[in-house]
Specification:
By secondary structure, the protein is an alpha/beta fold. The chain folds into 2 domains: about 1-165 and about 310-380, Rossmann fold (3-Layer(aba) Sandwich), CATH 3.40.50; about 165-270 and about 285-290, no CATH class. It has 11 helices and 12 strands. The strands form 3 sheets. An 8-stranded mixed β-sheet has the order 1-2-4-3-5-6-11-12, with helices on both faces. The chain is globular and about 60 Å long. The mean pLDDT is about 95.
């Protein structure tokens, strides 16, 4: 018989105000849901993570629990709101969850990075095995070397891309040259201009990819300059203390413009044209799609192509734990090249690459394929 319980997990306090809710901040807790089969007394816990998505109700939890492991879905401190998210704090949240599972008596913990959790899981395991980070990319203290992070026994990249900054840059609209005027567009770099495709030529794609990275770097440079400029706005408080704003929000337009969304010959797979949010042109400007609202410090930690550390391509070569990469052949968000490159980044032979034929990012209409993924994860956990 499957049972479910809500797990409170101690949350280490961040160095600045980056959670709007005072209730959440002062509770000192993050939360997870744990499913298990009480008839089997599992000794292995499978922890599924993402920087901002609410995995307390993750679709895989019951399926995994029915296969004899304890299945845990985590909600980090940034659940439902990534506008001020700091990836290094997400690492601390994962570490707190793994420590709690060890305290509950689980002998083995398998860490699953699902979707945008792939970069987080890889970074966590790298830092748990070889801690080096003492500051965020903005220079704020966050000592992962002294956090006592406990390595997971194995990690799984499940329907995952390599990291938010990587996939975000791959979706940045290269035709936007003025961040305040998204519809004043460079036609020579506009993937939505029929003159350019689809299909897109090799020369266009090369120029487009270079322009996407350059746009990300322009925003990164601007964000870093703005953080320094905030010091100029110091005021004296009524109590006589010097104080200044330490962060600012801003908007990024055009974040769903990956040519692969329209040209299925690029990174070929069984996917359908489009994005997780529908039409690429609409999703490109839709507030609910990826990373339109952010802050200076969060940009550097979460979205910056050069400065964000949650990049599985860079972290996995340093990971000693066994790694499994599971991807769907019809996924329009995590592409075959993502899975293949993550697999190839693992520097040892305790690795496995699994393709689930016909599976899209959320297994829509195919619960049988979700069950297949869970069976692979449960077997890998054993």
């Amino acid at each position: 018989m499957l049972s479910r319980e809500l797990l409170p997990i101690p949350m280490s306090q961040g160095g600045r105000l980056d959670i709007n809710s005072g209730v959440a901040r002062m509770s000192g807790k993050i939360w997870a849901t744990l499913w298990k089969d009480d008839r089997r007394q599992p000794t292995t816990a499978v922890l599924i993570v993402h920087p901002a998505s609410n995995f307390i109700g993750h679709y895989a939890l019951e399926e995994l629990a029915s296969r004899g492991v304890a299945a845990v879905g985590l909600a980090t401190r940034y659940v439902g709101n990534d506008s001020a998210l700091i990836m290094e704090n997400c690492v601390l949240d994962v570490g707190a969850a793994i420590r709690r599972l060890r305290e509950l008596g689980y002998e083995r913990v398998v860490l699953v990075g699902n979707s945008g959790g792939g970069g987080l899981a890889a970074l966590y395991q790298e830092q748990a095995e070889h801690p080096t980070i003492t500051h965020t990319p903005a220079g704020d203290p966050v000592d992962l070397t002294g956090a006592g992070l406990i390595p997971a026994d194995k990690i799984v990249m499940a329907m995952a891309h390599p990291g938010r900054a990587v996939v975000y840059t791959e979706g940045l609209d290269a035709a936007i040259t003025d961040e305040r005027r998204p519809f004043d567009r460079d036609r020579s770099l506009d993937m939505f201009d029929p003159a350019n495709g689809p299909a897109y030529g090799e020369e266009f794609v090369e120029r487009y990819r270079d322009a996407q990275i350059e746009r990300n770097r322009r925003i990164t440079g601007w964000a870093a300059e703005q953080i320094e400029a905030l010091r100029e706005h110091t005021r004296e408080s009524p109590a006589g203390l010097k104080e200044a704003p330490d962060d600012l929000p801003f908007v990024v337009h055009g974040t769903a413009a990956d040519p692969r969304f329209l040209d299925l010959a690029l990174d070929p797979s069984d996917r359908k044209a489009g994005t997780l949010w529908g039409s690429p042109w609409v999703a490109n400007f839709q507030p609910a799609s990826l990373g339109h609202l952010t802050s200076l410090r969060s940009w550097l930690s979460q979205w910056s192509y050069d400065r964000s550390r949650a990049n599985a391509y860079l972290a996995l070569p340093h990971v000693q734990a066994p790694v499994m990469v599971v991807h769907g052949s019809a996924d329009c968000a995590a592409f075959p090249s993502h899975a293949r490159t993550m697999y190839e980044a693992v520097a040892h032979d305790r690795r496995e690459l699994v393709e689930i034929k016909g599976a899209d990012h959320y297994f829509q209409g195919r619960p049988d394929l979700a069950q297949t993924m869970c069976e692979h994860i449960a077997e890998w956990s054993r």
